[in-house]
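Example (one chain per record):
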Amino acid sequence: MPPTLAVPNLPIARSFDAITRRPTSFRRMIKDRVKALAQAKNFAALTTMMPSGQPQTQVMWVHCDDEHILINTEVHRRKFKNVELDPRVTVMIWDNENPYVFAEVRGRVVETITGDAAVTSINALAQKYTGKDYAPQIESERVVLKIAPERQLVR
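Predicted structure:
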C-alpha cells in the first residue's frame, strides 16, 4: 500500500471536471469579508452562461451560510435553466454605502433547494431588503441556488 501524503489546510476534492480535470467540489468557507457583504443589505450581480456561451447577468438579493453563497430565484427563469446546463457562476456583491468595496465569488451551483424552505428563504430575503414578506406572485416554484466558492476576491 502506497504511503498517504498529508497536505495540511487544503480542501479535499470530491470530484473532477471532465473537461478541465480540475477539482469541482471543495469545502471552502466563505471569507469573513464576503460573508459580511452577503449578510448585509447589499445587492449582488449573478452571472450565468447561456446555452450559446453568452454571459447573462442579473442584479439579485443575496445571502450566505458558512460555505455557500445563496441566491433565490424561480425554476422557470433563464438563470435557473442556465445553471442546470452549466453550474459555473460568478457573484459580485458590492457595498451599497461604497460600491468600490466589493467581493467577487466564482464558483458552482452545487445544490438546489425547493419547496417550503425556498419560500421561507425568499420571505427572509424580502424582510432583509424591504422590511416585508415577498409580495410578487410566485409564477412557478422558488428555488435556492447554493453556490460553493472556488475563488473569492475582496476589494
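Caption: Residues 32-154 form a domain with the Pnp Oxidase; Chain A fold (CATH 2.30.110.10).
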